[in-house]
Give the backbone structure.
Amino acid sequence: MSDSPASDTRLRSGRQLVIAGHGYEAAIASVGATLRSLTFEGRDLIVPFAADEVRPAYRGATLAPWPNRVVDGRYTFGGVEHRLALSEPERSHALHGLVAWTEFADLVVTDDRVVLVGVVEPQTGYPFRVEVEVEYRIDAAGLTQTVTGRNLGTDAAPWGAGPHPYLVADPAERVDDWTLTLPASEVLTVTADRLSPIAVEPVTAHAQWDFRVPRLLGDVFIDHAFTGLSRNDGIAEVRVQSASGAGVAIAFDGVCPWVQVHTADTPVEATNRIGLAVEPMTCPPNAFASGTDLVVLPAGGAHAASWRIRAL
């Protein structure tokens, strides 16, 4: 008998589920219910990562029970102060929720649809039990993701959700070469060092972040949440396109009144500005502390939010 422990041959990103149809193909990884890759007729629509890779930079992760940051990991809910683990230690914030590294189980697996489920167990800083159900579905309109939170506990729970795809207009280019359409009239300004929220201001006061009229991104830096979204038939759509007009769009309804946009600036040339993070959100950064657009799940209650990615 060998004294060495049995090896675990599972891929680092978990089980791999592939769905396809209408020219689209999506690979979903079970760890974090992550959208690992998405293509249309073989063209990348998001920045992918390898199946046996630890997911970098939250690429494609499901963000719940909050998106973005809780400043200093501190918030008060129901008159009780809570302190979350600081998962963004360099800025001393709690970042992107609690399910990014959760192993999700399969509920439904078909050729064009998967449904995964995980549970946020009560813990220090978030003493609530919430089931998180994530559906990915492909049809002629693209890939739709729906995230549903269900409160399994006896106390009301704070809740927020969003995705984290890095959109790609042309895999041979960088963010600088793409045209952005962002129908937002307001931006949440942040501190330069920690990206802590300051105030919601009109984009007319910050011309560098005004993309209501499509224009080239160039070398602009963005890592901000936007709101005041204009919508057609209730739907807001953010687009990135190459000079050829090809590109990708993400669309979402009023359940997500916010969208975080980030130009993915990194000090490593291989990953610097290779995709534009566009993250529809049910609430803004630090909503657990501010209460702005925070969803409160009553005992036994549920909340669902959806967004759709399509090729242009």
DSSP finds one helix and 27 strands in the chain. Confidence is low (pLDDT under 50) at residues 1-5.
